Amino acid sequence: QVQLVESGGGLVQAGGSLRLSCAASGRTFSSYVMGWFRQAPGKEREFVGTISRSGGGTVYADSVKGRFTISRDNAKNTVYLQMNSLKPEDTAVYYCVAESSGIFDYARVRDPVWYDRWGQGTQVTVSS
User: Fold this and answer.
1) Per-residue model confidence as pLDDT tens digits over 67-104
2) Using an 8 Å Cβ cutoff, are 90 and 124 in contact?
3) Which residues does residue 80 pair with via DSSP β-bridges, in sequence order?
């Protein structure tokens, strides 16, 4: 079973950039669909984006499309979230997620229940 550890969060000014990393344990990283969710205080978890096993397919939330980019390096067992043009409303705890079937189901990728592995989260704070 894969375990996920996020890093790279912090405090940044609006308009700035951050890159989050998610390191996964285990030999089967390349078989997982990977993704990112976020949760702001007092709000529900929100889908950010997801990436297929090969990295050839991605889906993003409308709120981050064009500003955030997900990528993965299967040789390093790591998935990344590059966040540019950050806004105060991007402030949240960001969670790395993994889905073990490996099926890139466009109908389900936005559903947090579909993912069966979650990291502990990393805080991102964007100041105005």
Assistant:
1) 999 999 999 999 999 999 999 999 999 999 999 998 99
2) yes
3) 21, 71
